[in-house]
Specification:
Elements: E1 7-16, E2 19-29, E3 34-38, H1 45-52, E4 63-65, E5 68-69, H2 75-81, E6 82-85, H3 96-100, H4 116-125, H5 141-154, E7 159-163, H6 171-186, E8 190-195, E9 205-210, E10 213-216
Parallel strand pairs: 3-8, 3-9, 6-7, 7-8
Antiparallel strand pairs: 1-2, 1-4, 4-5, 9-10
């Protein structure tokens, strides 16, 4: 008997101001699967991710998480299960530690605590030689991108939605991010990654936007 998908798109359609961004689409992903979506700028890749986690309203009835419509989930819990990583993440005023542990203060993560030793280990794995007390707003764009990714990975969402996760990184640090995503997928995390370019270093099911449709590549 096949396991229930972690996330499903059922007749998922995107429109904006009368224009069709994505024709009705059905997709499903099991635990540990990765979906990679490419396409030119402006085709709707970032909008797709925002619609999946209801950061942009309009598709809550067409997204199913663990067999329940997204519209039936309480929003804080939905955001915990479906984590979104924007292409250009912002750091809040405060230390690197404050930003990494920000989600731990939310009610849905009550009781979750992460010590400094684990934070240091996680930073090192992503090539981040920064002090936990360092002002996060002073990090470089590439450092902010990795801290933001680490913040999401530490809360262990069921689905991670990544918008251009290695766009701001040099090859060595991009490879570190690939390894971190691979480890999370091995633990069962579903990942949906969008990019304007091919990402051969990331295995997974590949689609590309083509005339408002998701076309299977491999």
């Amino acid at each position: 008997m096949q396991e229930q998908p972690v996330i499903e798109l059922r007749g998922f359609e995107m429109r904006r101001e009368g224009a069709v961004l994505l024709a009705p689409t059905d997709l499903s992903l099991q635990a540990g699967e990765r979906l990679l979506i490419t396409g030119p700028s402006g085709c709707g890749k970032s909008t797709l991710l925002k619609r999946l986690c209801a950061l942009e309203a309009g598709n809550e009835e067409q997204v199913w998480l663990h067999g329940r419509r997204a519209a039936r989930w309480e929003m804080p819990l939905l955001r915990k299960k479906l984590a979104y990583l924007p292409q250009t993440p912002l750091m809040l005023e405060g230390s690197v530690r404050d930003n990494l542990c920000l989600a731990m203060s939310l009610r849905v993560n009550k009781g979750m605590q992460i010590g400094d030793d684990r934070l240091h280990e996680a930073l090192e794995a992503l090539g981040l030689a920064v002090d936990l007390d360092f002002d996060a707003t002073r990090l470089s764009p590439g450092q902010k991108a990795r801290v933001a990714l680490l913040q999401r990975l530490l809360t262990e969402p069921d689905v991670l939605l990544c918008d251009e996760p290695i766009a701001a990184l040099d090859p060595d640090n991009a490879l570190r991010v690939v390894h971190a995503l691979a480890a999370a997928a091995e633990a069962g995390m579903v990942q949906i990654v969008v990019s304007h370019q091919e990402l051969p270093e990331l295995p997974g099911r590949r689609y590309r936007f083509n005339q408002a449709r998701l076309e299977l590549v491999s």
